[in-house]
Structures are given as C-alpha cells and as structure tokens.
Predict the structure.
Amino acid sequence: MKKMHDTTKEDFENSNTNIYEAILVMGQRARQIQMHQKEILNKLHEEYQATLNLSEEAPEEPEELELPPLPRPTTKAVNEMLDGNVDYDYLDPHDVGPSEA
C-alpha cells in the first residue's frame, strides 16, 4: 500500500481516466467519512453527558472523555482510492428528477 506522501499525479491517472474525476470522488468520500466520524463523536458525547451527575450539589470534576483515534477523512479517502476500495457510478440524467438536479 502506497502512503499518501508517496503519491503522485500519475498514480491517479493510472487508476482513473480523469484526475479531476478522482479528486471529485475522493472529496465526496472524505465527506462521507467525516459525517460517519461526526455520528460516532455525537454518540460518544451523548453517552458522556448521560453519565454526568447534574445535581444541585457541588459539582464533582467529571472524568475526562477518551476519544478513539480517528484518521483524517481526506487521508483515508485518498488511501481508499489508491487501494481501489472506492466504487462509484454515474447518475443517468434522465433518472434525476427536477428537484434533484
């Protein structure tokens, strides 16, 4: 597996017909990864808030919330693209309704 800092433009040109297409696909994939990570962090935050004692008494120092190590979405998207793990299709313009265009 090639690391992101060892990646060249030719790596993308060899795997795709158009480098701009690859950039668009990786951008969309990075957004998907980021949204998934946001859901994970929101769930952890909700669970953490539920464990806090929010009584009227003197507040105790809450435990520190440990977050899982999450990769950077862009780095993960580039690595997935280079490894060939990203599949994408084109939408048929006739299948897209007027409100979706």
